[in-house]
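Researcher: We are triaging several targets before committing to wet-lab work. For this one, the compound of interest is zinc ion. I'm pasting the protein sequence and the ligand SMILES. What I need is the predicted three-dimensional arrangement of the protein with the ligand bound, expressed as structure tokens, so it can go straight into our comparison scripts without reformatting.
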Amino acid sequence: MGSRWLLRLGLLVLAGATWAAAPTEPRIPPGYQPADDRDERGLWDELDEYEQSLRRSPLLVDDPQLNAYVRDVVCRIAGDYCPDLRVYVLRNPGFNAMMAPNGMMVVWTGLLIRVGSEDELAAVVGHELAHYTMAHSLQQFRHVRATMGLGTLLSTGVAVVTGVFAPIGELAALLDALAFSRKQEAEADLLGARYLQAAGYDPRASYTVWESLLAEEEAAVVARDEPLPFMRTHPAIRDRLQALQTWADAQPAPAARRTRQDRHRRVLTGLYFELMEDQIDTNRYGRTSFLLERHAELGVDPALIAFFRGEMYRQRAGDGDGERAAEAYLEAIKTGHAPPEAFRNLGYLKLKAGDRDTARQLFSYYLALAPKASDRAMIEFYLEE
Ligand SMILES: [Zn+2]
């Protein structure tokens, strides 16, 4: 009997002990309505009001394919709770998903460009649903309402939603108020993983999703990017990952495993251009670079990967970045199906470097490929010069 086996046994016992202590029966039944006390009713009313304004937000993603996909995953996981939930996909490059006690679920597009599969998306949804069914979200929002007022939370929440990446310092108080306890996290992990398994998804997605998030955080530290707010509201991910892995690896493979990698990739590809533009605009190069490598592994079109690598370098504009960007645009163009913007942006770089002839040629290609481009007049002006 090797020491590795003993180590595994030790981890199993440890994980078992942690999890046995956590009550995992949901406290909120399907079809739940707020208790008839003024406190909870008032909380719901305030949240409903906020939700009304959210419905009119210009940041709501209205792409029908994406919405249908996310709703479908949520309903598979939520089962009997499905009719109680409303799902909103918001355009924000951060990683976040949250569920309010009134059944409003908000998913940021930054989550969609970070999960590696439908199973991993389902894992995050299962975890958030568990916070709701265990009444953690209710406790959390009650606490925030009593201490700082829900108005502050929601207006700052709107800032979180609209401000792309607000400086972490300003958000710290809010995020700390929203953070779940370790006990709540352990409960949500266990129940969420069960939801995942019951819906026929791969139980291992319950921890692989955090593995890649931690890998991104490491890349971000090296590049001195700020940590994701999600890491602050969901503490101790490293320890939890270990417990989830021990549990998931002991589960039988799902009988009819849903390998819907194709659906995830198709939906992601459909909106890739917009979603990655948002990511580029965050100026978090460590993260962007990490994500591009990951997307290449997931099978995203190499033309798009190369184009956005070009965008990343062009935006950073440090020493040698002009050459790196030009090389990446050229790589995109060589695939034969680069986005027209690859020609235009390489044209700008050539113009800057004084190579007017090549720039002119590239601008002409751009206009030929995108005759209705909104910047046509400006490009024509360059061509005439
Ligand atoms: Zn959590």
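Researcher: Any quick observations?
Model: The pocket of zinc ion is lined by residues 127, 131, 180, 185, 188, 234 (CB under 6 Å).
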